Each structure stands twice: as C-alpha cells, then as structure tokens.
Amino acid sequence: MEPLSIAIIGCGPAGLAAALLLARQGHGVHIFDQFVSPGPVGSGLMIQPSGLAVLDALGLAGEVLRRGARIDALQGIEEHGRTVLDAPYDALGHRGAFGIGIHRASLFAVLLEAAERQEGITLHADHAVTGSTLSPEGRRLVFAKADPSPPFDLVVDASGWRTHFDPAPKGILPFGALWASLPLEPGDPFAGNLLEQRYRRAAQMAGVLPIGTRAAASGPEVAFFWSLKADDYAAWADTPLEAWKSEVLRLWPDLAGLLARITSRGQLTFARYAHRTHPAPVGERMIAIGDAWHSASPQLGQGANMALLDAWSLARGLAEGRTLAEKLRLATSWRRDHVWLYQGVTRLFTPLYQSDSRVLPAVRDRVLAPLSRNWPARGIQAQLMSGLFGFPLAPLGLALPDYDALSASLISASASGAPQS
Alpha-carbon torsion 271, 252, 198, 68, what sign? Predict the structure, then answer.
C-alpha cells in the first residue's frame, strides 16, 4: 500500500499499539502526547483473552505475561459471605485460557519499548492537542503551546474519553474508584491468581488484583481499589485515613495488612469514568479509536482490550481498503457491532455493582448468581468477562493465543532465573 503520514494523539495502549502496527506496514507515524515524559496514569488493569490475541499477534504476549500476573478467575463475595460472582476462565472451553493482571506502567513499558525499537515512529512529548484544521494538503494538529503541525494524511485520535474531538456530553458516571498499587507480602491472605472483590450491596466495593512486578518495584504487587462516588470524594478527603480504613475493614477484615501499607492519601488515586460513544468516529482524514470512540465503566475490565482490538482493526482497514475513506470505513465496520454490544452490556451490568440501588444487588445475589453457576449462563458469563462475547476476533483475522506455549515460556523464564521485570 502507499505509505501515509499518520499522526496519533495519545500515548496509551491504543495509541502505542496503533503506532506499532501502522509503522510495521511502512507508514510514517508521529505520536503526540501532552505529558513532558509520556507515561501511564493509574494502577492495575486486566488483559483479557481478546486483548491478548492482539498482543500475541504483535509478538508481545509473552513479555506482558512475564511482567504481569496470571489470573484464572474472578471471584466476588457479598458482605454476608455469599459468593455472588464465580467466573473462571476455564468455563470458556478453551484449553488453558487465562487473563493477565498488570500494572499500567508495565503494559506501557512493553508497548513503548517496542515502539522505540520500531523504525518509522517519532514521539513528540509536551504537545497537548487542542484541535485540528483541514486543508487540501491534509489535516494539521493545533497545540496549546506549539505551532501547528505539518499536514498529515491521517489523524488517529487515541486521546481517551476526554477527547477534544467529540463535543457531545461525556456521560461521566457517578461512581469512580480509589486505586493504590501495594506490595504483596508472604502470608497475605489473597490468592495470587484471582481478581477478588467484596460488595456491600452495590454502594461499596473493594477489590484486590495481582498485577505482577514493575521494574521499579522490589517484588510482586497488587492493585487495591475502593468504589467511591465523585460527590463523596471531598468528604472522604476530610475523613481521617484511619477512619476510612475502618470502614473498609468492616466489609473485608482480611485487608488489614494491605491497608497498613497505605500511610498517606498520596498513595491513592481517584479515577473517574464515563459511558459514552462518539457518534461519528470517522471524519475526513480522521478516526477515533479506544476510549476516544467508546468508553464505559471498568466493571467488565474491557477498556484496554477494546482499544487493542480497535488498533488492530485500523491497521487491517488501511491494508485492505482502496481509498482512505474506504479504509476507515472498514476499520470501524469490523468493530461497530462488538462496541455496540459491550456498551449495552456494560450499561446493563454496572448498576448491579455500583449504584445506590437496594433492589438491583438483591437481583444480582439471588437470581443472577445462582443462574451463572449453570449451563449455558456459566459459559456466557465467561465469554463476557473475556471480551469474546460477540465473536470479535474472526472478522479481524485474529485467533486466541497458544496458552500452553505462553505458560511454558513463563515457567522456563522462572526456571532460568530471568528477571521478572
């Protein structure tokens, strides 16, 4: 195909994965990021089988697994001790399938290191994009503190749900979450291969996700999170830290050792979320991917995975289309149904776990939880959790990775004494 000059706005998973894929096709790629030193924001995330399929095709799945933690199931227990979420990956029926818990910094490092090795990618830090202008020569980016860019054949908006290129209301959700990355110590009462959650109705949720070992950490870590309404954040900030810890421990006493490692509020980051879908993700010489196109609550853990699928679809569209307009149309058409499906499912499920309702969590615990233990609901739950509901891989020419080979590579690396980060 004819090489294009491409600008990518944003240096997150969507932007970096797209840059890698497009540069490998021979395009000239420029990434523009607002940070002086581009880096991740936040704590842990889940790489689901859907996203791992893209990382495997990029040749990065093994490295992501080496830096992360293998997750075999999700487990949720309500305040009285009843298990209301039991979602093992083996219910997928795919031999050896698993997810990966990983710190955002580790995933970022894997993608950035690959981008730095790849010819044809130029990273421009400290370039906050505020808009663009279109001319016959191409689309130029407008920056807050720099002159406009040269014209590009294509601009890829991977700037997240706060994008400047969608003027529609952002649909910010009432519940956010406090996040902290904390060391995991011997004797901690957490399973190293589970995402564990505790619920008090739907108003309070605590979670612990193993996230592997970061380069800057001395050992394995977990991501701790606590749901919190944005309207209650100011009150939380004025509450003594020990009083808040006592509230958390009333829900989950086993967190005592972990919470003792939180000694200041600076260790906690409050994250906001939005449920929105860009009404027009394709424009002239422009396309939105990842959260810039569609964003939702993290309840199903799909954000980074959807972004990786979008990046792959964009690269395939550029390879197969004849005109630029057709290339972009193909890129979104292969993803549109899956995006629509997960936006709807996430909107449906989020109030069961994060809301002020007393009725919905009762439905979750007394109706949905028993149903999910039996066929076919058990398999459907696994499909939803893994990002595979709606069969998104086949239209993109992707396949699930060889999990046996990935597991064997991790065992081999551990046996040889290879560093874990």
Answer: positive
